[in-house]
Amino acid sequence: MSKPSWQNKHIVVAGLGSSGVSMLRFFQSQECTVQGYDAKLSAERRAEIAAQCPDIELVDGSLAQVLQDADILAVSPGFPSRQPEVQAFAARGGKVVGDVEIFAQLVAQTDAKVLAITGSNGKTTVTSLTGFLCEQSGLKTVVAGNIGLPVLDAWMQNQGQADVWVLELSSFQLDTTSSLQASAATVLNISEDHLDRYDDLLDYAHSKTHIFTGSGVQVLNADDALCLAMARPNREVKWFSLQKPSDYWVDVQDATLPLKAGEDMLLKAQDLALTGLHNAANALVALALCEAIGLPRAGLLPLLTQFKGLPHRVETIGFYQDVQFIDDSKGTNVGATCAALQGLQQPIVLIAGGLGKGQDFSPLQDALLHKARAVMLIGRDAAHIEAALQLDVPVVRCESLEAATQQGFALAQAGDAVLLSPACASMDMFRDYAHRSEVFIEAFKELSQA
């Protein structure tokens, strides 16, 4: 067994959020020298980390100075890896890695399977569903990564033992990953997101392709031009589509919306507990990933109908006067909101807005055309969204989410849906997307109990 690349090295872990601290915890048990770095480390946070990692020095101030004697810089996903100090460190021979790269070196020493999932939208649903299918099929399954459990915490908690690791990976994690060899991996889609961290959409898309290192099966979206370009020569590729016959596809010409594999009928969309066409695609991707590691289809199809989905992803929270209220607070970019709109069949009152992260909001125009009853806008970038829309329905600026919920219901008709799918981050008005969801649910309860 080869010696790990970090053994006997001086390592600086930069960015001390959950992933950064998981790296500190991991490295303190290894044969190396470790420091934790964060530019702005509060006394409270310093004390919390010191309690978990008592033998590790925590530093702040100039990153360039901290890196002078370092061999490896281990960056957390939230730490911008393209800043000049990091580039200079790499240029003089320093190695820049993330927690997923460290995990990749560990898992390569085992016989475990790895299923890796990324994309602008849907990755949390696909990761959770894939993990559910693997676990219910009898495999020792660990789900980790961007979904909430840092990969190194998952590794340590399970002592490196699993039949299959199901990983949700963000572009930030993939930026610093070079040797992950997944048994099967997918890029679900590419839409504008995180353009404050990338040069352009192609730059962002390229970061996603790091998930395809190695020789595993590629599962790719036949309806997405950027995903079409990711198919690699001499690799097994499985295509999924909502538009045309493919390896895995939904026949949208049939009113029952059958899910198919080639010519084989699998299920009808109505058989799934998940709502919306985009979730039918998510189910097909999970099926493709599981079949790629040898799980039999006959056992997987009944399991697909049992998975009920995730909180805050196109989740029905209730009905009032025959109007459906749907929580998609986790729809934090334009692509996610477009997918939610396209997946629902009834007229919609959309509640959107928040921190736009430099996105182009114009795709919302086509997604809302002939489907929107009204659009209620909240948050810092409400004006930018309004400027992108030319609709023959009311577009209303609201002071709060509570007001948007009340005014949206007033404009809805029986059979409509009031959909919270903000296309934006939440931190201008809320702690996070879950808090935004809580406020929406409370607003619905007040409305329906009045």
Structure explained in plain terms:
This is UDP-N-acetylmuramoylalanine--D-glutamate ligase. Pathway: Cell wall biogenesis; peptidoglycan biosynthesis. InterPro entries: Mur-like_cat_sf, Mur_ligase_C, Mur_ligase_C_dom_sf, Mur_ligase_cen, MurD. The protein has 450 residues and is α/β, with parallel strands linked by helices. Helices cover 34% and strands 20% of the residues. The chain is built from 17 helices and 20 strands. It has helices spanning 18-27, 43-52, 63-66, 84-91, 99-107, 123-136, 151-157, 171-175, 201-208, 225-228, 277-292, 297-304, 334-343, 363-368, 382-388, 401-411, 433-449; strands at residues 10-14, 33-37, 57-59, 72-75, 95-97, 113-118, 141-145, 164-168, 184-187, 217-221, 237-241, 248-250, 258-261, 264-268, 315-320, 323-327, 348-352, 372-377, 395-397, 417-420. A nine-stranded mixed β-sheet has the order 7-8-6-9-10-11-12-13-14. Strands 15-16-20-17-18-19 form a six-stranded mixed β-sheet, sandwiched between helices. The protein has a five-stranded parallel β-sheet with strand order 3-2-1-4-5. Strand 18, helix 15 (382-388) and strand 19 (395-397) form a beta-alpha-beta unit. Helix 6 (123-136) crosses helix 11 (277-292). The longest helix is centred in the last third of the chain and has 17 residues, at 433-449. It starts with 9 loop residues before the first strand and ends with a helix. The model has no long low-confidence stretch (mean pLDDT 93).
